Amino acid sequence: MRVEPFEIAIPDGVVADLRERIGRTRWPDEIEGVGWEQGTRLDYLRSLLAEWADGFDWRAQEAELNRLPHFRAELGGLQIHFVHVRAASRPAIPLVLTHGWPSTFLEMLPLVPLLTEPTAHGIAAPAFDLVIPSLPGYGFSERPRRPGMTTRALAPLWDELMQGLGYARYGAGGTDFGAGVTTFMALDRPKPLSGIHLTFLEEPPFTGPGSRPLSDGERTYLEDNAGWLQSEYAYAELQATNPQTAGYGLNDSPAGLAAWIVEKWRSWGDTRGDADARFGRELLLSTLTVFWATETITSSMRLYWEKRRAGPAFGPGDTVTVPTGFAVFANEFVPEGRPPREWAERMYAVRRWTEMPRGGHFPAVEEPELLARDIGAFFGALA
To answer: What are the catalytic residues?
Structure first.
């Protein structure tokens, strides 16, 4: 595996074009008093885009990001971007962390100092060598050129990456699609894995013929989740069926891109309706800029199409034997609707189960210290 240093350098022309397009936005109307009930609120998006065009300093963000060691490596015929930060002390546990949608590698960066230098941050846990890749078709990773790049297809690529970096044994973790990749690593290539740590059940376990009956807690969870699907899942149906059609608008309009992505950060995070207060506009606008400058919103959505095309992920024989830790955050999609432990134990060898008092779908940026402490405690107990 050939690894080459990588530097983020978005051309000036791309930034200038973005600002010019924002200035020419053709805004829709809005029903008075509707707020966020029909989607992204008009006055909020106007304010966000005004700052994106005039006030947000991408060059300062770019310089800060480039203080980290970035690389690219060819995996599966694609150039995959990743951040690789070694622990400040030895010994260290190698750990690959994978983000999901609508996110980028930026989501995992608040964990870097907490896991590579835990004692400096008051965390009594082992130190980690962190590898944080960008999913194919996200940000600075190359876009797949043909169908088939599912989360299961990614699992051997991440193993190749870790082995190529010299890690014969390592841990893995992630959320959203990253939790799916991590799960398939544990299913298909368990031998190198010391453990996996998840904050999300990306695919439901098998509950067909031969499986045990649902518990009361599982029934309640599935009922709550069904309500969420009814009110929030339209985005996924669109991305699973017609990502290319949606991509024409989102790739061409900064307003469309921002409305599509920020709505999800607001509703999926533990935000109480205020995404700015929870995440900060610098993170939101940096995430949007990465999607915009790399033109990867369409390719990022195709992972939903791949998931639908692949069909049910797990069958009756699929069991993760690798020791598994779960950090279950309080407002993961459904407020106070977290899955019960027995739901995860249908498939995973659960060794640690932590129910967090707060946090949502983006815990690495919402509650990085809570997550870092749980990761450290889980892998520390396995050492």
So the answer is: 176, 304, 361
